[in-house]
Write a structure and sequence with these properties.
Two copies of one chain form a homodimer. Chain A has about 260 residues and is α/β, with parallel strands linked by helices. Helices cover about 25% and strands about 25% of the residues of chain A. Chain A is built from seven helices and 13 strands. A nine-stranded mixed beta sheet of chain A has the order 3-4-2-1-5-6-7-13-8, with helices on both faces.
């Protein structure tokens, strides 16, 4: 406890503290690849869910206890799992596991896309939004393959470049980054852009249980409403570039206050 | 099935179809009060989680089956529960339970505040954001008392007025509303505003299990960073007004693309 107090109050020449989390869980190849990418850049601590948490968005555990399990170090990084969501991991890491405020929070590398406006469901980005809200520069990395056995090394140059630049320069205080890396051996470069608009179609597979009662399983495919718009993330990832979308946690639409006043007046 | 096809393709003089959900579950007093408020305005169908889902944000169930249970009608409204999150309820209602696209989606009345930037964790607002993303005018209602036995009738004039206006005029296509109603017998009026910035302090209660191992329970209090700013929702709810915040699901910070380009170049 004394060393924690000491660490919390001194600055100086320490290496940056990098907190890593994800939504695929502590055993996912993606989080190990992310640790490997940044292990040389600072002191790395990984705190991730104890199981898969895809689609958890910014969910928090409000009515259950959270426990922490320590795992074997990986490439010099401390590794912990938490019995909760990605946001729980960020909150609990800062409450109980880190000896000082992190300089950077990274989430991923997610197995699968977090592009377009369906990013709203993403647990990967839920953790990143949380990091941003507590004032830490935060980045989510996603690779466009759901195959947990795929080779993630193609992500390395992108993760390396963006992480180093953000460590050096920081980010605007209310902005975090959503980075998507297309499938393939290498990507052509990066494009800073916005999320494409789209929607899901055929969202459920329908079944009947042995008693004839219906049940449902989420499925469906994302329909991109603007596939030819070079202002959007999916336009570029479809063409072999990594996309970087600046994201703001506050969803207040200040520019619509006047319109809403005139509807309600 | 034939009547569904018929209903899906004809317009005409039908009463508006209003879908109601919440995050406190199908048995919460708040959803019954909301049904009562709007029962005269259209055909009402309530589809809510089968248990409490506070803090579920925009979470979706990706790796479990969903089942639906029909409950007794309430004030002429069909009532269903779903074994999932608030967003699951909206998606599954539109897939399997409604005979046509709803004219309005309402969520609430939530037992407790969804003000300030902690609205990001709200399951109430997760459902509203989902409604907006599928192109339906959507409103979340929250009452500033966690007491499930409190008298919610103070909400009626606010819910009545805002719901009627939005039924008449619609909402901008990418905007939904977050309405918060202060505790008390009546409120002084409404203010269209933005979410206050703040953060949580002392977020966990710490415990030790019988074997000495730590565990944690989420708690803490919200610290409003701008309590004296009349541009914010909490300023007005603290002073007895209902707040209406226009909310945009797309979190892309288009105005920051230039800043991020200069950091990454």
């Amino acid at each position: 406890m004394e060393s924690m107090q000491h660490d919390m109050t001194t600055g100086g020449n320490r290496r940056p503290l990098i907190l890593i989390t994800n939504d695929d869980g502590i055993d996912a190849p993606g989080i190990h690849e992310l640790v490997a990418c940044v292990a040389s850049m600072g002191d790395v601590v990984a705190v991730a869910p104890d199981g898969a948490c895809s689609g958890q968005s910014s969910a928090i555990s409000v009515n259950k206890v959270l426990t922490v399990t320590e795992h074997a170090d990986y490439m010099g990084a401390k590794m912990y799992s938490v019995s909760g969501t990605p946001v729980d991991c960020v909150k609990l890491a800062m409450h109980a596991l880190l000896d000082r405020k992190p300089d950077l929070i990274l989430s991923g590398i997610n197995h699968g896309s977090n592009s377009g406006n369906n990013v709203i469901y993403s647990g990967t980005m839920g953790a990143v939004l949380e990091g941003c809200m507590v004032g830490v520069p935060s980045i989510g990395y996603s690779y466009h393959s759901h195959n947990q056995q795929c080779d993630l090394k193609a992500c390395r140059p992108i993760v390396d470049m963006i992480t180093r630049r953000v460590l050096e320069s920081g980010l605007p205080s209310d902005i975090c980054l959503n980075v998507n890396i297309p499938k393939g051996e290498s990507c052509k470069g990066i494009k800073v852009t916005r999320a494409a608009r789209g929607y899901w179609t055929e969202e459920y597979a329908d079944y009947a249980d042995p008693h004839g009662r219906p049940f449902y399983w989420l499925t469906g495919s994302f329909h991109n409403e603007e596939p030819d718009n070079p202002e959007t993330d999916l336009y570029w990832t479809d063409r072999g570039y990594a996309s970087v979308v600046p994201v703001r946690p506050d969803q207040s639409a200040v520019d619509s206050i006047g319109d809403i006043k005139s509807i309600l007046d």
